[in-house]
Amino acid sequence: MLTSQRKQLILQKLAAEGQVLSKDLSEAFNVSEDTIRRDLRELSAEGLLQRVHGGALPASAATVTFAERKNLRLDAKRVIAKRGAELIEPGQVVMIDGGTTTAELITFLPHSLQITVVTHSPSIALGLADHPLIDVIMIGGRLFKHSLVAVGAAAIENVANVRADIFFMGVTGIHADAGLSTGDYEESCIKRAFSQKAAETIVLASPEKLNSASAWVIGDISLINTMVVEENTAEHLLSPFIAKGITVIKA
């Protein structure tokens, strides 16, 4: 079998099963695990999968530029964001991460809602400028232009002084076993810091993020309490999260 044929079959198996193991692939193709690891390394370099210990997971499609991500599955993001906005109660302190799905979330906040929003995203802050009853507290730091958020030591230090009711965490990958991930190291650090200061952490899990992974781990799936997904999301995709105690809300 040609290497290109084997790689194509690996990708087909990954798409069908959501995960591949090097040992199983080695036995299935009757080649060494070193050969399989080389295949996975090359496929990862092409952005076609995300290598993890012992195998690979689907690579998240949510790691392209902010402008490109903005229109990726926009219909699904809006439905999920609307349901997420309904989880906010008046008087709460709400931390909102940067991202294209959270950008949709704030469009569904009524002008009569009185809350305090803490964010490290200038675009989220500007999007709430015309909400008269929403106090906005900005977390400052170095601007990470790929995601248009503040990152770095100063940002994490400021997060330490917050106690919030809810944190809407943006991720590029969410997987029951591989956990929560994103495409940048410093982003992973500040997301983890935010989650540690919230009574409840929610992920708005648009389809391209579900059961996929990116290079930098934010933390175990236990960091979050709730995930909001599309109504038509297959039950077999959600059952591993439910088994781990995550509340799944369908939008």
UniProtKB/TrEMBL annotation:
The HTH deoR-type domain, residue ranges: 3-58
Keyword Protein biosynthesis (UniProt): no
The keyword Lipid biosynthesis is annotated on this UniProt entry: no
An example Gene Ontology molecular-function term: DNA-binding transcription factor activity
InterPro entries, A to Z: Carb_Metab_HTH_regulators, DeoR-like_C, DeoR_HTH, NagB/RpiA_transferase-like, Tscrpt_reg_HTH_DeoR_CS, WH-like_DNA-bd_sf, WH_DNA-bd_sf
Source species, domain of life: Bacteria
Protein name in UniProt: DeoR family transcriptional regulator
